[in-house]
Amino acid sequence: MNKKSGKQSGDNSIRPAKSVWWKLVIVAIVVITAVVLYRQFGSYLSLESMAEQETALRNYQAQHPVLVFTCAFLIYVTVTGLSLPGAVPLSLVYGWYFGFVKAFVLVSFASTLGATIAFLFSRYLFRDAIMNRFGDRLAKFNDALQREGPFYLFTLRLIPAVPFFIVNAVMGLTPLKTITFWWVSQIGMLAGTAVFVYAGSSVPNLATLADKGVNAAFTSLQMMQIIGAFVLLGVFPLIARWAIKLFKKSAIQQSTS
Fold first, then answer.
1. What was the pLDDT predicted at 54?
2. With contact defined as beta carbons under 8 Å apart, do 57 and 97 qualify?
3. Coil, strand, or helix at residue 164?
4. Where are the domains of the chain?
């Protein structure tokens, strides 16, 4: 019995070690892939580079519309899934390239799929290590996220000051369900997606877009107003929920007094 139990405990100690090594290998592969892709193709994602290929891009789209749409979708998923820079320029370019409706649908679903992939990467690679080390300290935080997680995520999706790749990574460390992360992100990113895609679809050519960016469609004041509206829209559900709880608590105290 002792030998058997000793063998089992040895196997149990080996398995976590193997799991850690596999995760380190996956992290290395993801990082190397992201670096290589960015070094090889990052310059092509810039607005300046695309502006130089404007005529060629239009001609190729006319000849291969389905292939172009599919490739554009996969490119956006790759950029967001690997947390590469370039999502905003791509949103602007897609708006100009495909028109508002097609680009809005493409960017909306591609960005959510890419974000969910990044979320799952973070969960699989890092969550166990974080919970093993800080599980006790994070218990209350995780309990709160079980109840309020969708509201927090929705708020973060509407605040442009918080980079989305950070939101994806941090949420992957929480107990938030994947399906919840997906549908809240899908809804929460709609407003931002609409703004950037509309900005891209409003300009006559890529040269103007490369020169002015979002300002080609919106003034600085308008952008500040839009960002403020996003923040208010995101914070409102949390404020409303807090107000309802406060009202219920006050009503209970009055009824018992």
1. 75
2. yes
3. helix
4. 46-256
